[in-house]
Design goal:
The chain contains 20 helices and 8 strands. By secondary structure, it is α/β, with parallel strands linked by helices. Bound molecules: guanosine-5'-diphosphate. Keywords: Cytoplasm, GTP-binding, Hydrolase, Nucleotide-binding, Ribonucleoprotein, RNA-binding, Signal recognition particle.
Length: about 450
């Protein structure tokens, strides 16, 4: 996984900081020097590292240490905030026209970056959102590229428009858009030709497509394993062709991760998605805040939760009710009930569904901490399937392992297990809570 070595180094720096009661300016400077080395070794561009350290230093030194706040933690928070801001702060979606119109997306990238694979991955995402995408084979130099797109399109259940290798890409794109109009497709994704290196012909071809076809979004695919090269490629494509966003592939490999940290700062364009494997489902939305927690070794809890969420459905909810009634409710079910609560519109709507709470719902809502829930989920996700199914297995050594896996204190694991037991008891006492006459379901 990317960032392993960076995370390890940053954690060491922070461990040293945390062990100090007070931080002097010199302490901060020494720590930041180590952060700087760690970032450079992770292949983050020198210019970016310099700006980053300056920003952190100004905030860390200029700040009064507030009463009750651990100064080490404050530095970590500042580093975290600055990492998030370096990566663009907000999550950026691919901008689409309304469903009644056709959005044209042009995919660009060097050969081998993962462009054709990513094109099919994107089509799958758009299809899941209810769009009707059409993939277009514009790489006329490599016949294998057309076949590859056709195979991937078939796997995704998405039509591929191809005219062989005798037409020029502009004509193919125009014909594809015509076809899309006639057949009610609403997203046209052009898979263009790559080259081994940035070269003038490739750029000209992309520029020409843009001149003659109304391209709404130009997305560049770059390989995270190539580190700073990926950043340079993004910068030159943006200067010459103009891009709207970047997809960073092969983040599942042992890349040092620098590209993810430098692309936005250098090219000015956001990372939209990251490729996490060769399978067509291995594409994740890019969240700067989650990536920062991943880099700082705080785990990427939210992404794990989202994965769990994708598999929740009505049948599972019904199954869960039966489990509660039969008292075989385990941690997996607990996790699912938390996720289900989110799917149902968050805590307040769930509380409102519970009978007999009335005005108390607001008070309870105030007491529930969403972050605390995220930590609980991390704890559960660090358990083995057996432990989740059978909470009685949790002895102290298992709890210790789970705490380490989730990056929390063992006390927190104990607290959660206790709360889980209480919830289980409460649920058993409230048989009418789930699926009452009104059909409303609480689930937590
Ligand atoms: P193109 O030449 O840019 O169209 O690249 P391809 O789509 O043919 O991909 C080149 C290679 O990279 C293929 O073996 C892909 O399976 C692989 N690949 C693409 N994206 C990822 C990714 O996110 N992770 C991993 N591990 N491999 C990827």
């Amino acid at each position: 996984m990317a960032f392993e070595s960076l995370t390890e180094k940053l954690q060491n720096v922070f461990k040293n900081l945390r062990s100090k009661g007070r931080l002097t300016e010199a302490d901060v400077k020494v720590a930041l020097k180590e952060v700087k080395m760690a970032l450079l070794e992770a292949d983050v561009s020198f210019k970016v590292v310099k700006q980053f350290i300056k920003a952190v230093q100004e905030r860390a030194i200029g700040q009064d240490v507030m009463n009750g706040l651990n100064p080490g933690q404050m530095v970590i928070k500042i580093v975290n905030d600055e990492l998030v801001s370096l990566m663009g702060s907000e999550t950026t979606e691919i901008a689409l026209r309304p469903a009644g119109e056709i959005t044209v997306i042009m995919m660009a990238g060097l050969q081998g970056a993962g462009k054709t694979t990513t094109t099919a991955k994107i089509a799958g995402k758009l299809k899941a959102k209810g769009r009707k995408p059409l993939l277009v084979a514009c790489d006329v130099y490599r016949p294998a590229a057309i076949t590859q797109l056709q195979i991937n399109g078939e796997k995704q259940g998405v039509e591929v428009f191809a005219m062989g290798d005798k037409q020029n890409p502009v004509n193919i794109a125009k014909a594809a858009i015509e076809h899309a109009k006639n057949q009610n497709f609403n997203v046209v994704i052009l898979d263009t030709a790559g080259r081994l290196h940035v070269d003038e012909d490739m750029m000209q071809e992309l520029i020409q497509i843009k001149e003659e076809v109304q391209v709404d979004q130009t997305i560049l695919v770059v390989d995270a394993m190539t580190g700073q090269d990926a950043v340079n490629v993004a910068e030159s494509f943006n200067q010459k062709v103009g891009i709207d966003g970047v997809i960073l592939t092969k983040m599942d490999g042992d890349t040092r991760g620098g590209a993810a940290l430098s692309i936005k700062a250098i090219s000015g364009k956001p990372i939209l998605y990251v490729g996490m494997g060769e399978k067509l489902s291995d594409l994740e939305q890019f969240y700067p805040d989650r990536m920062a927690s991943r880099i700082l070794g705080m785990g990427d809890v939210m992404s794990l939760i989202e994965k769990a969420q994708q598999s929740i459905d009505e049948d599972k909810a019904r199954e869960m009710e039966q489990k509660i009634k039969k008292a075989t409710f385990g941690f997996d079910d607990y996790l699912e009930s938390m996720n289900q609560m989110k799917n149902m519109g968050g805590i307040s709507s769930v509380l409102n569904m519970l009978p007999g709470l009335g005005n108390k719902a607001k008070d309870i809502e105030g007491m529930i901490d969403e972050k605390d829930m995220a930590r609980k989920e991390a704890i559960i996700l660090s358990m083995t399937p057996k432990e989740r199914a059978n909470p009685d297995l949790l002895n102290p050594s298992r709890k210790k392992r789970i705490a380490q896996g989730a990056g929390v204190d063992i006390a927190e694991v104990n607290r959660m297990v206790k709360q889980f037991d209480q919830t289980r008891k409460m649920m058993k006492q409230m048989p009418g809570m789930l699926g009452g006459k009104s059909g409303k379901r609480g689930g937590f």
